[in-house]
Amino acid sequence: MRETRNRTVTRGAILVLAAALALARAADAGHGGVPAVALTEPEYLKWLLDSRQPVVVVDLRSAPDFRRGHLPGAVSVPLAELDRRFAEIPTQPMVVLYCRCPLEEAATAYSFLETKGYANHVVLQEGYDGWLKRRYPLDSKPD
After folding, report:
1. What is the largest CA-CA distance in the chain?
2. What is the pTM of this model?
3. Which residue of 8, 25, 58, 79 has the smallest Cβ count within 10 Å?
4. CA–CA gap between residue 25 and residue 96 (Å, rounded)
């Protein structure tokens, strides 16, 4: 009986902790923190690209930076132009956003797309620099 009671207490504590973390994340998003965003790892994106899975990769950096080098198959929609060019980004399949900026800026783009009805989008963890750090391939021709 004591073991069952301990399990119940442990499960309850885990649920309370999970709820507290969720509320804290929501509170941070509303008070100057980083809005909650879905992230994906560079390794997963590379696997998607290598296995030719349907994915749209969106480079939020400036057009000149894009021309110097970008992730394979990426399309350029600079962050400064997102509000008027977002319709160029399809809502399906998965959309992966990346930049060479703080997470807060990528999170702003993520949140903006969410307000426009996008539900299948993520931000690339570590962005462009994380991709480079792993020495993954780049395209340097304009797409």
Report:
1. 68
2. 0.75
3. 8
4. 22
